[in-house]
Structure formats: structure tokens, C-alpha cells
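Hey L., structure's done. Input below.
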Amino acid sequence: MAIDIKEIIKPENIVYKKSSLLTDNVMHYCPGCTHGVVNRLVAEVIEEMGIQEETIGVTPVGCAVLLYNYIDIDWQEAAHGRAPALGTAIKRLRPDRYVFTYQGDGDLAAIGTAETIHACNRGEKIVMIFINNGIYGMTGGQMAPTTLEGMKTATSPFGRDASHDGLPIKITEIVATLPGTSYVTRQAAHTANSVRKLKKALKKAFLNQKEGKGTSFIEVVSTCSSGWKLNPVDSNKWMEDNMFPYFPLGDIKDE
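Output:
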């Protein structure tokens, strides 16, 4: 007698399933990378809101650019650092669309500092997702603007020296001071509880866009096992001990 699996796995009994927006492409992120978790959450939020056909994502250069292989929505690729400028153009031309950018720390807080600051200052009605792992991941592990003091990288082999390189920039606190931002938060994705909080923040940001509010800016403090030269477990521990004290989690602005 044939067994109908649908009769066994009823919708009310499903604890978790893969988002229908996620493609079957194999993810190219390193083991333990935070990108994969954030990718999944973005897909889940878009699916749950039923806005797949109205959403346009913008990714630049770096590990972030891989995202358009994994979520089945419309995408535009921007030059390095220019995602906020391209996102601005798309949203102004198609105000009926949900637009978000997805960028790393070297892209958003260094190469694209001007685009970030001015888009937030103007209050562009987009969502900006900022992955901060304190290092240039894809391009060789160089020091980034968010690299912590004393942290060793390919271009700071003896550790970041504040007297020479300055202190790590807190770009999220900076954009929170700008009048155009409506929601600014810093989250993580290393535990079940942090994943729930991050998903809630992402959903809030997209709902803010639906309501026509100013820029929503979400920083995700992340790991880079390859760049940090640590295994995934030790990377999470290092992040908790070193990244969180300098980049504390929580909402910074909510209007």
C-alpha cells in the first residue's frame, strides 16, 4: 500500500522548511560564514510578506555579490560601494518596488562611505543590510574600516595600530544621527535567539519601507572564519568576546 507523504507531514506539523525563494544553487560561502544565515532570513521575510514579485535587491562586489545566486528575486549588481546610489535610482524610478542593498563592511563603510552617508541623510526609502565581519573577506583578508584595534589582518600583520590606522569606525552610530534614517539597529545571527531578533528587525525594515518611512539600516555583526583564521566555533566565541563589546547589539534608532 502506497503511503502519501502529504498525509504524514501536515502543514500544522512542519517546524521548519526551506523558503521557496531560495534556489537550489550550492552556496559558496566558507563553513560557518554568517552570510548564509542572513541570506535565508532575507528570503523568508520576503516570502512571508508575499512581495517576491515587487522586490529588487542590489549587491556590489565582495562576498555579498554571491547573494543573487541564492534568492529568486530581481537583482541589480552595483560597482564596489555604489549600492546605495543604485538603490536610490531604482526606488525613485519604481517607487512601487521594495528595494534593499546588501553590503559588506569594506564596501559600505570604506569604498562606499559617501554613498552610504548621503543616501541615509536624504532618507531614501530603501533597506540597507550591512554585514560587518571586521575584514575584507573575499579579496584577501585585508584590514577594513571596522577591523578592531590590535586585530591581525593581511595588511596589519602585527595588529591594527590606532596611532597609525585610526580606530574602527562605527558607521551605524553615524547614520543614526542623520535625519533621513527611520530605523537603525545592530544585530547578530550566531544563536537561535539572535536569529529571531534579526529576522524581526529585517521584517520591521521592510514594513517601514511599505509605510514610506526613511532609510532602514541593519548592521549584522558577523564572523569570517577564513579571514580570521579560526574554525566556526572559535569564530563565534571570538566575535562575542571582541566584536560585541565594541559593536554592541540592539536598536539605536526607531522612529
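Residues 150 and 159 are 4 Å apart (CA to CA). The longest strand covers residues 98-104.

-- N.
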